[in-house]
Amino acid sequence: MDGTLYSSTLIHTKFAEAAYYALAHERSISLDQARQEIERKRRELIVRYGSSVPFTLTLRAFGIPIDVWHKYNTAYFDPRDLLVPDPRLRSMLEGLKKKYTMAVLTNNNEIQTQRTLEALGIHDLFDNVFTYNSFNLLKPDPAFFRRVAECLKVPVMACCFIGDRYDVDLKPAKEIGMSVLEVKGPEDLYDLEHYLQQGEHT
Questions:
Q1: Which whole number is the average pLDDT over 54-81?
Q2: Which of 12, 132, 192, 201 is paired with 161 by a 20 to 30 Å CA distance?
Q3: Backbone phi, then psi, for 125, in 5-degree steps?
Q4: Is residue 106 domain-shared with residue 180, that is, in the same domain?
């Protein structure tokens, strides 16, 4: 979802600020110290995962429970204040909905996910929305992808996973047998129906 259905440097900044605040509050350190610690840890995790690392995984590496982090970021900002509806995105998804079962799979929490989908004007277009709260699992854990396929009642081989981060999103999906399509943001989604029809994914 984040980085795929929308692209916003402002929201990324808000997630970062919320993460700094969460660590500062939980460790009783300054915001500047928390920022330095988080960015250092993210650099370490990038070496492991090979791409940008979500703040959820970063804070978990500090021993901060995921539910605690979600309470911080949910209280810190509301995506509905920062995003606007995307008519082109909605039109594309409406076309796909006629042919495919569609689901969101995100490490974000249920509240922020619903807020984001509402802000984009697409909350009514997905058959299912799977967040961390669904199974207490996070990407890139392959179990998350398998549970989603089970809930959708489709074999993993029949699924196409679309995401913007290869190591966190696409690699684990591909490893369990899903087709994958890498995008860099919503601008890559507008012609998504064409790509799926042409089989231009791996």
A1: 95
A2: 12
A3: -100, -10
A4: yes
